[in-house]
Input
Amino acid sequence: MAGIETGSTRAGTAKADLVIKNAKVITVDSNFSIEDAIAVRRGRILDVGTDAQIEPFIGRETKVLSLGGKCILPGINDSHGHAVWLAATNPPLALNLRYPAVSSIREAAALLGEEVKRSRPGDWIWGFGWDYGSLEECKADPARVPNRRDLDPVSPDNPVLFVDFSCHAVWANSKAMELSEVTKKTPDPGGGVVEREPGTREPAGLFKELPAEALIMKAAPRMTGEETKKAIMQVMEVLGREGITSAIESALGPGGNSMFRGLLGERVMDAYTELCREGLLTARFSILLLFGDYGAVSMDDFRRGLDAFQMPRNIDEKWLRFPGVKVFADGIPPNKTGWLSEEYEKESGGGYGSLVLGGRDDEEKIQALKEMIFASHEKGFQVGVHATGDRAIRVTIDGFIEALRRRPSINPRHYVVHGEMISQSDLERAAEHRIGINMQPAILPIIAEAQDHLIGERRSTWDWPFRAAVESGVRLTFSSDMPVTYPNWREGVQAAVLREAVRTGKVYGPEQRLSREEAIRAYTINGAWQDLMDDVKGSIERGKFADFCILGEDILTIDAHDIGKIPVLMTIVDGRVVYDASGGAFERA
Output
């Protein structure tokens, strides 16, 4: 790589800005080599090797970190999530409704009541993190769902929006529906579901999938530009603490302006661009663009957004890129909106789910999906398609293959986001056509037990087939889907290695477990591949970005049940320390 001194200068004149030695360097190169030391110059890796081999790079001005045998990995690449949204899902901006803080509808209502006492009449109250599988009332009665009547008695004058952990359902009170002008005459939007009260058609207060969620959010105030920039700064602090040096913001653009305080909208893109130009980014970001109304429910919406998009100028693409487009194919199995070829369990109400795109029937929706994929592909954009049900995944892969056939000169590494219930045959097709699969292993322990009820034990053991993906030759990438799960990637590694349900410890699909090395690859070099940057990041090799994550325990040997608890001691991006919890222990005397 031009301008980068390599190992040929070990005994020569080039001196490093930074040397890290006495370490367990997990390189994640093709051999998963373990080395002792790294030399860095001008934000790039000069060389990797033994302590003795790297010693000649140390000069009078070289900063030296001696790790005392601690592990150092390539910087983590969280390859799918909604980073800025994470900042708005915790107090004081939102009530914490996650399990175990909230384990019943009753507890959620009580928490709301306390917040109402602290609020002024008319203030919007947000909450985040509830899920059906954790609510006692829903577990006792599968037909029971959160309802506006659960919230109205304690919050008659404050509009309430409680977003579930998956971000695919919103539980609202009557005041929020009044302000958003949602009534029994409001039709279900294409691709979304407004739950209704039996016999009256009155909205029950539960809104599923983006098009329906947008209905109930349209009156809610958005964050300002300055608030959005502050949220990004807060998120970068979180990423630093977690050893994450690269992240993909999956779905920002005009299609998200009214969603979740505008945190999927153009204002966020503008904030990232401004921070990049100001030199204030401490992690590398790639943004997938969201076109059309509520995630592009029609091809006309989508094409208008695609044709109107202007790539931001005067940005350093080492730090901020706009490589692709996000499309939503279906919903998620916990909402019974993931599109399946085999029906959901009868005891859960049955049904097959559906595509969330506009169209009169399945064929029109499938055609719209394929047209969106090809329109993006033709312009050279990478496409990440949200697809969870096996049927939605199949038609998504059909669309990718068709686009590659029609314009084979372009291969921007399209990928399926989630791929939760992908079939063996579709794994093989994806591998053949170099289509990536981006999974979120930390979701599995949260939803596994509920999946037994929804899709049956036979299918739930195949859910998230990590091992099958690796053995098929697919480029498997891992991510947090923050804020769906917190971006603790060590918990993701643990989930991939153990596949144990968080509440009972039951193992789901032991044959689908991965080794630690395979899981680490999915969070590093494979994520860099998906990000179209595996030539400059994702492993600790000469010439690549000096992005590193230093751990407090050995991730390759610690008890697997403790992987998620491993502390990050230091994060280095572009050769600069952006997070340090080492207490100075690594500084050479």
User: Anything to note?
Assistant: Residues 225-241 form the longest helix (17 residues). The domain at 7-75+542-580 is CATH 2.30.40.10 (Urease, subunit C; domain 1).
